[in-house]
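Long-time lurker. I teach an intro course on protein structure, and each term I like to show students one example going from raw sequence to a predicted 3D structure in token notation. This year I'd like something fresh instead of my usual example. Would anyone be willing to generate the tokens for the chain below so I can use it in lecture? Attribution to the forum is fine with me.
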Amino acid sequence: MEIERKYLPSDPSRLADRLVSLQGMHMVQAYLNTDPVIRIRREGDSYVLTYKGSGMLAREEYNLPLNKDSWDHLLGKCDGRIIEKTRYRIPLENTDEALVAEVDVFERDFSGLILIEVEFPSMEAADHFTPPDWFGEDVTYRQEYHNSYMSLQNVTKSQI
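-- Reply from a regular --
Happy to contribute to a lecture. Here you go:
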């Protein structure tokens, strides 16, 4: 089960300045299907196929490893835009659980968009989470900020 909230940063330029000193992981992902979500992702030399059930805050998620040949084969079968982003992991202080903010800085078609995701161990933890001041609007329930939806849109970040 994946339990995750999504946020926009309160000040994107200030956050971008903070990320300069961190090492991020470049990711490429594409979608074979968006309902249910069937995604392939490459992180460095690691490849994975992910199935996600329905839901916005909480949903079933299953990951299966792929090799490069499988990734290459499936990439040609994907629909929509390929999403590229760099992910930075920032441990969150003052939380009961060891929570991490995953800050995604999008590239190419969605250049300029920054999203912050936090995964939780339980619905209770997600419901009682108080975001730090560098988090802005909670967009968990706004489909336009879900990567699978974004992959099918003919819009740029400025239109989201």
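Some talking points for your students: The mean pLDDT is 93. The CA atoms of residues 7 and 139 lie 5 Å apart.
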